[in-house]
Specification:
73% helix, single chain, mainly alpha, globular
């Protein structure tokens, strides 16, 4: 079963790579067939990726000593889930507004995270650099190394909710970059072919706001469930945990964005910069803060032969 899970992941990665190439080809060659084919490749790849994650989750649920949060507790699965949600959110946006050009700004982030997952899997294998994803998935006892924590349904929901919100923020980040490029070209009167193909500033501004508005409830509920879980496990010590504190900062930044956008009519460049800053804080929370938090962290283990 691990071989099937690994093959599905590999095919999804190759599909995402092909999708990014096709979306970039659409930018440079302006042929609609590139974006149409890229969309189809992306849909198939996302289905393969979902199947890989679903199979892994099913196997994890049947493992002795299973805990609800175990599947997301190592870098590989968390990076895989993060990249899947980025693609899923992008496809959801495309179903409402076919703005294929934005794929060139959003999808490379999903591909980068998948690449990091592959790198982490290869480095964890004793056969590196001749390892495979299947090697990494042989770390069958990885989750058992976690500290004992209460396993509840809220623990299982907490992480996917946060990753969904992070993925929507990643989409907003990519569109924010496109917004700033477009705005600069308009102001300098130096429009390129890219500028002609990008949506209007107003449309991209609305997309950024809608993505953040859709993600904020998930961020709030995910953070709240995490705090409840942490309180039940650690008592009042959760208040001093760097991961929790940084997550509250992320929440405050996106709350400020929505408040300024809808109550004070903040639009345009200032909103784009704030969405970029917010996602920068998300990346620090995801990639960096775990290394200074004693309570949070991802399992990294060597493959057991």
């Amino acid at each position: 079963m691990q071989r099937v899970e690994a093959l599905l992941f590999d095919f999804a990665f190759l599909g995402y790579l092909a999708g990014v190439i096709l979306y970039l080809a659409y930018v440079f060659f302006r042929r609609e067939r590139h974006s149409a084919l890229g969309h189809r490749v992306l849909v198939v790849s996302a289905l393969l990726h979902a199947a890989s994650l679903g199979l892994g989750l099913w196997m994890e649920s049947h493992r002795p000593g299973h805990v609800a949060y175990g599947f997301w507790s190592n870098w590989f699965e968390s990076l895989s889930l993060f990249s899947f949600f980025i693609v899923a959110v992008f496809l959801a946006v495309q179903s409402r507004a076919r703005l294929a050009i934005l794929g060139a700004f959003v999808l490379p982030w999903a591909l980068l995270l998948m690449g990091l997952a592959l790198t982490q899997a290869f480095l964890a294998s004793p056969r590196c650099p001749f390892a495979s994803v299947e090697d990494f998935l042989k770390v069958a006892d990885a989750t058992r190394r976690l500290p004992a924590m209460p396993s509840t349904v809220w623990a299982a929901i907490h992480v996917p909710l946060l990753f969904f919100s992070y993925a929507a923020f990643a989409n907003a980040f990519g569109i924010g970059l496109a917004f700033l490029i477009q705005e600069r070209q308009i102001k300098t009167h130096r429009s390129t072919e890219l500028g002609y193909r990008l949506p209007s500033l107003e449309e991209m501004d609305r997309l950024i706001a809608r993505l953040i508005a859709a993600a904020f409830p998930a961020l709030t509920v995910g953070l709240g469930l995490g705090i409840i879980w942490a309180h039940s496990a650690w008592g009042d010590r959760w208040i001093a945990d760097p991961k929790v504190l940084w997550s509250v900062v992320v929440w405050a930044v996106y709350f400020s964005y929505l408040l300024l956008r809808y109550a004070f009519n903040w639009r345009g460049r200032r909103g784009a910069y704030l969405s970029l800053a917010g996602f920068g804080l998300v990346l620090v929370s995801y990639m960096g803060i775990n290394y200074v938090s004693r309570a949070h962290g991802y399992v990294v283990g060597k493959v057991l032969e």
